[in-house]
């Protein structure tokens, strides 16, 4: 108690030599309240309304107003004032308050997670790099905390945030792209590769070439690390294969690399999933697959499709049941 009094006295400049900072009795009272007020949060009703209406590409005025209204209702006054401030430094301060409190308020955060995700989307759509980097520092910690608490993101929550994250993967600053790339991979692990895959495929249609390149790379990542989870969606690889006809050399290269990873996992079966290709596209793919074989030999990774074939044979012979079907 004496430390609290000392702190408050220092803030108001009572202690000799202490730097004076304006603080009112109301400020002190506010800071003793809970950071998040989850009474009557009506999260499910809110999610149904938001998913139907919320579009990240160009947030409408009423969407921003709805977000501000929700934050004022459920976030402590000093917190929502910081997060809704036009001053990015105050926004960063607000995030730091949440970041420090996160380990002790995970349950409360879950109740307002959809509101937080909408606020994150708003920051992604703005151009302030400092605030965006702070968001990208906070989000991995948030996902880890949710995972540790045993919480699984709802489809509504993912639908609010993931389309925006995927589209913004093509950010023009490399440091931001790197953090977004790792965050997307974390989403794949925490949420579900099979459920994230359609969002990443959608990113292949982006008007931003860097986004398309990043999404092609992520397709390769999912094939390599979570291939069994997307067995039912392999025909979507024809979207990746279509990029081999693009004029942009970096897009073609990213698509070829992703399909080469697919060849490593699927072997010759990959030709079943790439759709109709021109002779030139087939030639490019064939050359890249031959390169992949040489790479696998150097790394002693076996032959393309070999591990998958062994798994399929084991299923047939032993009748083992695996968590995902083997095509």
Written overview of the protein:
The chain has about 325 residues and is an all-alpha fold. The protein is elongated. The chain has 17 helices and no strands. It has three domains: about 1-30, no CATH class; about 40-190, Leucine-rich Repeat Variant, CATH 1.25.10.10; about 205-325, Leucine-rich Repeat Variant, CATH 1.25.10. Helices cover about 65% and strands about 0% of the residues. Helix 3 runs parallel beside helix 10, helix 6 (about 90-100) packs parallel to helix 9 (about 130-150) and helix 12 runs antiparallel to helix 13 (about 210-225). Its main location: cytoplasm. One of its GO terms (molecular function) is microtubule plus-end binding. It comes from Trifolium pratense (Red clover). Keywords: Cytoplasm, Cytoskeleton. It is found in: Cytoplasm, Cytoskeleton.
């Amino acid at each position: 108690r004496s430390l609290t009094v000392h702190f408050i006295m220092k803030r108001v400049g009572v202690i000799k030599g202490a730097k004076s900072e304006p603080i009112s009795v109301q400020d002190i009272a506010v800071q003793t309240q809970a950071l998040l007020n989850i009474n009557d949060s009506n999260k499910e009703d809110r999610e149904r309304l938001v998913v139907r209406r919320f579009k990240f590409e160009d947030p409408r005025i009423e969407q921003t107003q709805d977000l501000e209204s929700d934050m004022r209702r459920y976030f402590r006054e000093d917190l929502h004032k910081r997060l809704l401030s036009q001053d990015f430094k105050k926004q960063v301060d607000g995030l730091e308050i949440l970041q420090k409190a996160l380990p002790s308020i995970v349950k409360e955060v879950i109740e307002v997670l959809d509101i937080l995700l909408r606020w994150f989307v708003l920051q992604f759509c703005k151009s302030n790099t400092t605030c965006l980097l702070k968001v990208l520092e906070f989000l991995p910690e948030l996902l880890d905390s949710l995972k540790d608490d045993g919480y699984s993101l709802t489809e509504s929550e993912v639908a609010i945030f993931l389309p925006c994250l995927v589209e913004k993967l093509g950010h023009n600053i490399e440091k931001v792209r790197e953090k977004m790339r790792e965050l997307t991979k974390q989403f794949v692990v925490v949420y579900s590769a099979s459920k994230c895959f359609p969002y990443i495929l959608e990113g292949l249609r982006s008007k931003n070439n860097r986004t398309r390149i990043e999404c092609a790379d992520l397709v390769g990542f999912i094939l390599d690390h979570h291939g069994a989870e997307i067995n039912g969606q392999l025909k979507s690889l024809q979207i990746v294969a279509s990029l081999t006809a693009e004029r942009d050399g970096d897009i073609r290269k990213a698509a070829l690399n992703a399909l080469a990873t697919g060849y490593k996992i699927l072997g010759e079966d990959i030709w079943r999933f790439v759709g109709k290709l021109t002779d030139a596209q087939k030639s490019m793919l064939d050359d890249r697959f031959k390169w992949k074989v040489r790479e696998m030999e150097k790394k002693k990774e076996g032959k393309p499709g070999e591990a998958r074939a062994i798994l399929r044979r084991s299923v047939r012979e032993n009748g083992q049941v695996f968590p995902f079907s083997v095509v």
